[in-house]
Each structure stands twice: as structure tokens, then as C-alpha cells.
Amino acid sequence: MRTILITGPGGSGRTTVAAATALEAARQGTRTLLLTADRTDTLGPILGTPTGGTPTEAAPRLTTWRPDATEDFRTDLLAFQDRAATALDLLGATRLDGEELTPLPGAEELTFLRALRDAATAADTYDLLVVDLPPTPRALALLALPEQLRRYLRRLLPAERQAARALRPVLGRLAGVPMPGEWLYETAARWDVELAAAQLAVEDPATTVRLVAEPGPAGTDAVRDAATGLALRGLRTDALIANRVLPDTSPDTWLATLAVQQRKAIDEWSDEWGQTYDVREIPHLGRDPRGTEDLAALPVPAPGDAPGPVEWPVADHLADDGVLVWHIPLPGAIREELDLVRRGDELVVTAGQFRRIVPLPSALRRCTVDGASLREGELRVRFAPDPDLWPRGK
What is the mean pLDDT of residues 105-109? Predict the structure, then answer.
């Protein structure tokens, strides 16, 4: 299934662009699901059809869905409470009733990831998934969550520890305290499978991102930051959409000045990003788009085909320079804001406000970091073979 993730700075009109993109695809005959992460029904007034916890048909071949975090949180917490009954009773805990449960911070993100997983695996029902993400900083944190949580689970509850589960009752009697039950490892394994499915949906080669921003100085800064953050996550951006573009000619001096500023920003975007992204302009309608007719008037890019996965190749320069070079695309990155730390078989990459811990390719695990440089929007990390680990003759 083709998946398009749509995000941008707050107030840029990303939800409107997501709705217009999904509607255009549906009108072309594509079975489309529009999934929104918005807490409130912002999407409903734009489409003219309320959205909620149940998938709803908004137009022919177009379904909308706004997951309900409250109900999912209540169901999961009550189920966990039942499974942990023995431990809770031992601690003298008082049970929680379903009526008193309200979502805690993070519940909405987990509910949305579960919905994203379910939507991305519904290939028999839909051909295209359009995802209306939160503003870019929240969207990047949300998209990073499956990978981060899976890493935490592997560290806290390693799967290999389950091999000793037959000894846990004996150890519990010797220690005089309850040992972690098998249900805990089973729950961790289930969470890992669910998170892996969500991670796969995000990292699938058929998944691309479209950035929406109003052209101007603030929009330019936001696009540059977003491009770096998305690239560090290994996500491909296929379109940069300049939204609410004013006409070039206007009798109003104030609007004409603003239009000149917008045109300057769009030209900068084309020069900087035009070779990588499809830079598109969506004109200002003179009003907030409402209903399918207004959405149809917005010239959003067609879904198109997925351009393929982002490559992080390792180049072999052993014969010439005695090093392997790992090429990591980081468009928009600033040299002074880059930092690298080697931790065992992982590399911690920091680019400004963004950080990611990535596993090293197998060949690089037998090497030491020999330096790094940033050239033309690409981080190039040099690795020298470790004589104690590198096979002889290689």
C-alpha cells in the first residue's frame, strides 16, 4: 500500500492539504483512507463530514478515521490490571474502575501508532493511506516512537532471558519475593510485534512525506529543520508544498509586499530543494477551504508512485585511503550542530534538535571511527578497520 505522511509547521494548512490529497486520489478511483492524528475534529468541517473513532465514508472511495485514545487506553489499562492482579494484591493496591480512567500523556501517540499499523496492513480494503500528522516537531517524535520503544524493551526485557523462565519459581522461593511472571515477557513480546508493525509502516519504501509550509522566512527555517529531522529518520520527502500563495499582482500595497516575500521564499525553495523535492504552489482561495468543492480547487500533487527507499550506502575506499565511508543524507544540517558518538555497535547521531541511535552495518562494527565531514547535505563518516577484528587479507 502507498502511504503519504503529511506534516508541516503549526498553522500551515497541512490538514487541508491532506484532505485535498486524499479527495483527489479518491476521485481518480483510488480506494483511500485518510487517517488523522488531530485531537479535535478539525478534518470534519473541512470535508463536511464528522470524523471519529470509527472509519467513516466521507466521499466515494474516501474513508476518514480519527482514532479514539480514550477507549483504547481504558481497554488496555483494565486488561493490564487484570493480568497484574497477583502483584497488585500483594502490594495492597486498590483496583481502578473503567469509569474513572482518562488517557495519560502518551496514550494518544500509542493509539495513533496502533491505528497506523492497522491502516497500513489493510491492503485488501485500501490502495492509498494519507496520514494527517501533527506539526513537524510532534510528528517527528511520533514517528521515532516505535524504534525507540523497541530499543527500550530489548534492553529492559531481553528475549534471551526467557530461557530461564523454568527457574523463576525456584528463584522466587529462594529470594522470598515474586519474580517477573511469564505474562510480563509475553506482554513485552506482543508490544514488540505491534511496535515493529508500526515501525514497518513508517519505514516502508512505499511511504513518503510531504511538507506543507507557508512561504516566508519562518516557513523556510521550519522546512530546513524538518528536512534534516526526516532524513535522520530515514524518511523520504517527495514534495514541498508552498501553501496559501498570494497572487503576484495586487492593488493592495500590503498584500503586494507580502506576495513579493512569498515569491522570494518559493524561489529559494526551488534553488535549494528543487533537485530533491517536487516544489508545488497552492494558491490562497481568499477564504478557509470548506467542503469538497473548495478542496477540489486546490492543485495538490497527485499521489504518484513511491520513489523508493532512502539509501545510506557504505563506500569501499580501502584500496585508496584505507577506510570505509558511510554516506548519510542530512539535507539542511549545519556543521556546528552535528555530533557523533560511537556506542558499541551503534552510532549516536545528533543534528541540531534531532537525535537518533542507529545500528552500524556489519562491516563497520569491525572498524573504528576515523573522522567525519558534512558535504553537500550529506554526512560522510569514515571508518578504519580494527586490526584485532578485521579479517586478514581484507
Answer: 78
